[in-house]
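Fig. S4 source data, part A: sequence.
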Amino acid sequence: MGALLCATALAWSLPAGAASSAERELEHEARAALEQLYEQQPETRFLTEQSKAVLVFPRILKAGLIVGGERGKGVLFRNGKPDGHYVSTSLSYGLQAGAQAFGYALFFMRESAIRVLDDRDGWEIGVGPSVVLIDQGAARKLSTTTADHDIYAYVFGQKGLMAGIGVQGSKITKLD
């Protein structure tokens, strides 16, 4: 497990000259992940149309053995264009073992919810604007009158051997 965490850390540390290329690659991966989410959950197109912005983390790597951690980079899209790059990190402690990769998207329904992303200390999910984790059943019931929360979250593309996935407790910090 230590090797996996070390490999993850090395994969995210790139030389300064590679930044623009790495950002373009991240944007491409985030767009592809969002398209994958649209295919799996067609109702998410509605949220994109209604939202002020969408923050997409195409790949979060999670590993743990009693103590766990997760990390991934994402892109904030406004009107379909990249508007910032972010990192999501989390630490956990408890009865856990394994490794997993997944993606998640946050649909920001209000400008006030987006402003928390630019806080100099980052934003911890669970503190601040309300985040609603959506499953397939709830997604089918969303409409302009029922989509009244600050942020909607979708977890998708789970692969690996670790139970109890969620986005609560993650800290999101702007990279730019």
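Fig. S4 source data, part B ends here. The longest strand covers residues 81-108.
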